[in-house]
Amino acid sequence: MSSSLNNWIEQRRTGEFAEAAQGVVAAPAATVVLLRDGESGLEVLLTRRSSKLAFHGGAWVFPGGRIDPDDYGDTADDLPRAARMGAVREAKEEAGVDVDPEALIHLSNWTTPEGSPKRFATWFFVGPVAGGDEVADGAETDKLQWFGPDEALAARAAGEIELAPPQYVTLLDLRAFATVADAMNAIAAATPVDYLPRFHFIDGGGAICVYPEDVAYDDLSKLDTPGPRHRLNLRDDGWEYVRDCVARSERLGVRRLLVGLRRDPQVGLRRLPALRKLGLGVLVRDRAGDDDVVAVLPVHGRGDAVIRGEL
User: Fold this and answer.
1) How far apart are CA 297 and CA 121, in angstroms?
2) Labelling 112: which of 18, 138, 288, 292 has CA 20 to 30 A away?
3) Neighbours of 283 (CB within 10 A)
4) Nearest CA among 131, 166, 160 for reference residue 147
5) Is residue 183 part of a domain?
6) Residue 287: φ, ψ to 5°
7) What is the DSSP pairing of strand 41-49 with strand 141-147?
């Protein structure tokens, strides 16, 4: 497990910041997942935070930060617009790149769990780079690098880079897409996901992040109770993200892919590797001469993600 995240977990396990964390309100923030089409497929821009920073110092993240008063412009109560403008500003400040605010698509919202002395309610957007020169600001970020999603996840598994849960889960989702257009179209058709984790600390080390939709979200004593799962297991020997098949497939636009397969089998079949990356198998039945998807079945334990249930 990454050192900064491990320290964060241990501080909360021991209650080191319990008093300072009481009543802390999550500050509005915004981040942007910058995408480009690389030689080997979709790539994502990650920035390494300065190791001098207290919050996730040394971790690789997407450009982002607090929403400033100026981001609201003349509309002081328009938080979605301010978040969009804040994401554009942070991309320029931290990475030196220009982003078209109208091209950004709302991906998700991540809120730091209660019990932390510093909390953020962060809007995540995805979008392409529109211009500018890629350069770290030398203050909050000291290095930039384009990664393929699988490449970044492999680097984390090898201990070469540190990722926090929001970056880890986002990269897992982005593995499904071969191009920027694929990602943008699917995300635009999906519903943004709210991630407000609740932590269960494991004896001997590690933790489980439990998200809304999980059977144990409102009662952590139900972690082993049968029911829907949406959680990230942060074990010292590896991480495992678990989300029920229906919710995850809708999030990543798999329903749209299956419709395309029924209408045009050749187009759909060319995109089946994207489904395999999600850990999904496809059962196709021939009916009256037309290919028809009748079920999407789970394949447990594939890679870092586990998909459960049927579509």
Assistant:
1) 35
2) 138
3) 10
4) 160
5) yes
6) -135, 115
7) antiparallel
